[in-house]
Input
Amino acid sequence: MASVRCSPASKAKLGKKRHKHERKILSFDETARVLARLEDPHRLVVETCIAAGARISEVLGLQWKHVNLDAATIKIEQRVWRQDVGRPKSEDSRRVLGIGELTDRFREKVTKDCAVPDSWVFHQRRAPERPLWDSGVRDALHQAAEEEHCDFPGLGPHSFRRANITWRQQVGGSAIEACKIAGHSDLEMTSEYTFVTAERQNELTRRIQETLAGAASKIKGTISPSSTQPTGHVGSLTQFG
Output
C-alpha cells in the first residue's frame, strides 16, 4: 500500500495575529467631543456604527428597504467595500440591529432625500445612485479627533465597533448578546474586541472594596485584631525572659 505524503505546510503553526496599530478606543467623553465636530452624513454613519455595532461596510451597504423605522432597526443583508456591493462577511453577519434614539434622525433623512426603497441611505452627494465612500468618513473622523487632541493611527469607524462591544457589556449586556449583535461566530472573537479600561477596572475594584468593607463593618468588635499574640506564644517568650 502506497504511503500518503503530507504537505510540509500541514505542520506549520501560525503565530498570534499581529495588529499594525495599537488597538484602543476613545472614552465616552472623547467620543462625544469628536461627534460634535462631525457633520452629516459622516456623523450619522459613525453614530450608527456606535449604536448598532455594525461594520462601516455594512452601514454603507444599507438601502432604505433595510430600514424599519417603526421597529427602530436596520437589517444587514449586504455590505459595500470599495464601492463593490457584496454579501456580508459571514452568515452570522446577517442580522437585525437596533438603532435606538437614531430613529428620528433616519426618519428626517428619508424625508429630506425623498428616498425610495432601493435608494442608498448614505449616498454620494454628486452621485446619489452610488453609496458613500468610506474614505471620506475616515478623513472627517481623523480631522475631528485631531482637533480634539485624541487622534491615533488606528482610529476609524471600526474603533467604534469595538467601543460598542465594550460599552454594551459595561451597561449590563452579556458577552453572548454582544457576540450575537456584533455578528461574531464565537465568544473568542468578541473577547478580542472587548476592552477593560482603567475606569472600568476601578469601578469594579471599588465595588469589591465596598462589599468587603460592608462585611467588615458587620463583624467589627466581634473578632480580636490579628495582631494580638496567641497566649501560648506569649508564655514561651516570658519563659526566655
